[in-house]
Amino acid sequence: MKQFKFLAAIPIIMAFVFTGCNNADDKKTEPTTAATPDTSAAKPKETAPTPAPLFNVAVIIHKVANYTKWLPLYESDDSARMANGLSNYVLGRGMDKDSNTVLVALKMADPAKAKAMANSPALKEKMKQGGVIGVPTMFFEENVMMDTSTMANTVARVMVTHKVKDWDTWKKEFDSHKQARLDAGLVDRVVGHSIDDNHLVRIVFAITDMAKAKAFMASKDLKDKMAAAGVEGPPTFFYYTIAKKY
Q1: pTM of the model
Q2: Which domains are assigned to the chain?
Q3: Collapsed DSSP state (helix, strand, coil) of residue 115
Q4: Which pLDDT tens digit goes with each residue over 104-121?
């Protein structure tokens, strides 16, 4: 670089020699410096990460007599689900000695078809063959937030469902409480509401600390925040582990 500046200064020195110095002002002339090469074009531009696309889901929760026997029968009915705009997403199994309670989450392309299949005699017969016990709980959800990034060694989840007076009011209070949830070992994974009624809310959290998470769910802090957010009636909590992702 020093050599480059020296060579760049030669024309100035030569001009000084040939033209002479006529007055004191000439002596104050500032030397011209070489321009720094523009290398900005060589640097790749940083772009913000593209958020995962949202998709709606159908969630079915039911008990089965035997999970190991139920699973292959469930997966054998995949073509019928696809014909109704449903595709496999996640299977969960209940915790706390309730491993035969199954959560089925399906990507839902067509809510009308999904609801028709849910009420069809064919599905009821298939569930009977699979050893489903009792009446399933079904939730057809429009998602407004999803975090599908991989979380190492974290398969525990809790699903919270409750009614709210007003979705916008609830969402504002919910968002403002995020740090408290993180401190309690809860990471937001899914936030959504019924596709037919945004007063019925469903949230899924990943759990990084079970003891802290359960303490938080029973805390006065959460009860006060839910009251401020307009939650109506007691919420339901379903703790489960991710059994399979498709």
Answers
A1: 0.77
A2: 57-245 (3.30.70.100)
A3: helix
A4: 999 999 999 999 999 999
